Amino acid sequence: MRTRTPRETAIICAAAVAIVIVLVIPFELPSHNADGGTTNNSRYLVWVAVAGVIALATALRYRYLTTRKRMQDELAGDEQYRQLAEEYRRLADLAITAQEHTDLKLGDVNAQLDYLREQMASLQKILKDVE
Predict the structure, then answer these.
(1) What does the alpha-carbon distance between residue 129 and residue 117 come to, in Å, rounded to a whole number?
(2) Angle between the 6-28 and 41-130 helix axes, to the nearest 10 degrees?
(3) What does the pLDDT look like over 86-114, one tens digit per residue?
(4) What is the largest CA-CA distance in the chain?
(5) Residue 51, exposed/middle/buried by CB under 10 A (0-12, 13-18, 19+)?
(6) pLDDT tens for residues 26-65?
(7) What is the DSSP letter of 31?
């Protein structure tokens, strides 16, 4: 789990202070109307609760979407890694095959050079005998 940056910590603290202020406001409101009746602070608390639920749902949705996007990016990165690894294997196989073909061709060239050396030696022996 990663640690929070100072900016994130400051945002969380500011949000906590704002929540405490919003929840304390109903207790600071006068409980009597000007005509002597009492006010209904419960309606205010219901609206605060609804706003809190909406804010919580928004925050959770944002967190879900960012987590999902991060996971999709990681999966895409993993897929790209697999493709690169497969391409590397293919190129390595091609290099090995090319090296084997080169070794075979060098073997053929060496055999032909040996044959030509034998022919040259035979030709030189014949020329010496003719002299």
Answers:
(1) 18
(2) 170
(3) 999 999 999 999 999 999 999 999 999 99
(4) 147
(5) exposed
(6) 666 555 555 554 555 666 667 777 777 888 788 888 888 8
(7) S
